[in-house]
Amino acid sequence: MKPTHFLCIPLVTRLSRPGLSAELSALKSYITSADNISIPASAVRPLSTIHLTLGVMSLPEPKNVEEATQVLQSIIPLLPQRPIKISLLGLGTFPGIDPGRAEILFAHPTCLDYDFDALCQRIRHVFEDAGIFDKRGFSLFLHATILNARKTADGGLIDATEILRNYRGHVWMENVPLEEIGICRMGAKKKGEQPLAFFYPISSRYLVAASPQV
């Protein structure tokens, strides 16, 4: 079945928003002013879309969304009792992709004082065991998409060689506490539509559930 929703951790928080906004604006200015780079500004993802995807799911009916939100609630015991602080670094492409013919460029999340990858794997396993995630689907590869050539008017490939070189060690955000993990609908937000299905703060100490928007 076609995926309709995805489980994600938003990277735009109260603390990260100003810095990430400035970084994305600077990136747009850079790619549109550099003589040796031909990447449209529209390839840069909107601030509100910067997130880490843990998995995708098909939830065609409201009852399916309710089942998924119950599974989401069940992960509360897995969550740490202290904030998880994430840095977002560099730019890269998926393994095996020619930088001269790239579609997606992403930044890497790093966490120095907590095994964040292991937590995300445990959360994925909960959703897989509940039958919400397909175990035959893609494996976990945490990344935050920064540029996506598919979202441009041309929808073509880009030569990312130069920008990857210049942004190899770039810091997009540093040691920012994560706030939420949640289920989102796929696709751009339509006028008057709430894109979030259900969200929980990522630290169980501050658990406050939002109402489902389905």
Structure characterization notes:
One of its GO terms (biological process) is regulation of DNA-templated transcription. InterPro entries: AKAP7-like_phosphoesterase (IPR019510), ASCC1 (IPR009210), Cyclic_Pdiesterase (IPR009097). The structure is a single chain. This protein has one domain: Cyclic phosphodiesterase (Cyclic Phosphodiesterase, Chain: A). It has 4 helices and 8 strands, in the order E-H-E-H-E-E-H-E-H-E-E-E. It has helices spanning 17-33, 62-74, 116-129, 161-166, and strands at 5-10, 51-57, 85-92, 104-110, 144-148, 171-177, 180-185, 196-201. The chain is globular.
Supply database-style keywords.
four-stranded antiparallel β-sheet, globular, ASCC1, 214 residues, Cyclic Phosphodiesterase, Chain: A, Cyclic_Pdiesterase, A-kinase anchor protein 7-like phosphoesterase domain-containing protein, AKAP7-like_phosphoesterase, alpha+beta, 23% helix
